[in-house]
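Now read these lines:
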Amino acid sequence: MTQKFADTDTPDAGAVGSATELDALIIGAGVAGLYQLYQLRKQGLHVRAYDAATDVGGTWYWNRYPGARFDSEAYIYQYMFSEELYKGWSWSKRFPAQPEIEQWLHYVADTLDLRKDIQFSTVIESAHYDEDSGRWSVRTGDGEIIDTQFLVTCAGMLSAPMERVFEGQESFAGDIFHTSRWPRSGGEVAGKRVAVIGIGATGIQVIQTIADEVDHLKVFIRTPQYTLPMLNPDYGPDEVAWYHSRFEELRDTVPHTFSGFEYDWVHEWATTPADKRQAILEEVYADGSLKLWLAGFGEMFFEKEVSDEISAFVADKMRARLQDPALCDLLIPKPDEYGFGTHRVPLERGYLEKYHRPNVEAIGVKDNPIARIVPEGIELADGTRHEVDVIILATGFDAGTGALTRIDIRGRGGRSLAQDWGREIRSTMGLMVHGYPNMLTTAIPLAPSAALCNMTTCLQQQTEWISDCIDHMRRNDYTIIEPTAEGEEAWVRHHDETANATLVSKTNSWYNGANVPGKPRGRVLSYIGGVGLYREKATEAAAAGYTGFGFE
């Protein structure tokens, strides 16, 4: 049955035939989707958000695996558009865990009265642009058809999990959990033989959390990671008053830094004496945050000599904790593999020391990869079998593109977004894609929100840009917006020039799609010019009449 929506606080649904009619449809009810819904509703648009989950939260709904928590300081992973909203919530820690984060997003949704305009447990299966009407026809998994002027994607950059990665997974006699699809109830691992595949940021959080409670833990390691220790103090009334008092400072500063965090680059390698460099590295390392990565010495992203020295500094810190040469060989990147900061840097709490436990086994699979999953457990290429009761896949995501390419999105002339991005990943500022009119996007490639950003900072900026753009169109009687081919090419060229000047572009990681078989390579997914510079360029384009975009 086609569902129609009527609400006394919003315009009538205005169903046309068998379709529900909207001004704007938002895909996703996470950090971006909630704020986008709030803004467009304030403009008087008939707007509705759709989400596959049963409640709000986005990534913080799905990522409920053991140990899931912030690695951005809680008081900056915040909406900054409302002082009242900001000060109405108090965090218990510097880096809170998933349950508290999910509760915070419930607080946001309830305070802003957003739930009445969100349809949960609904999968968007297709979205096709009609060139005659200039509108999108969207179909859900339940068969509902929605006719909408604007399609706004807030589906997240890490929301398409790599779940089916090994032959034979369906044959396993025990439980297999992907970290981003951890069951809301169940998923017990205590007293069991458990395998964790993957030691990125997520795998590390899982390992350090469950090592003490499982019977035996086998960790399958392909790519070692540089890690930084997390300092996570509790927050009482004094700490809460401290960050609440900084609202205006943070609101005015955070959006203009390189990473969307409160800290920024203040040191230059070349002009800092060698002894002071070491002192600065020690200081930012001791902060117990991502400060060494995002506010240490920016030259490490560009100059191999600087990268080598900082990488050696971090490796020495890890080596002092691990001590065991065999563990060091497995868990610390080699100098010729990649430099510190060119992969996503994980924060950890006692992770390295977990490998000293007698029930934890580190298994290198770089030269002897996992061949298949068998009923008893995991079989390696040389035929070795590891018997386990539970397999945890910390195998990552089809980042940036996967959330949309798993939807059948068709633009002008029936062109397919999955096919277009299967050939070459392109966008205009990560806000639109040429050939897909009135599809406005967040957290897609070629913007900082695709990876290198405190996500709430970037998602707020993008949703505000989208809201302002739609308001501009309504005030000027435009019905269609689309980036021009020339405008998109100019942004892609600028993006590539910026990225290719860095060491990130020379490193294989999910930052450039290396973790997804068949995904186009060679283009870094995230804009690396910095959050502040990106904001300037997007704002300038809008102020100049939306340079690079065309209206009808």
In short: The domain at 19-56+114-160+398-551 is CATH 3.50.50.60 (FAD/NAD(P)-binding domain). The longest helix spans residues 455-475.
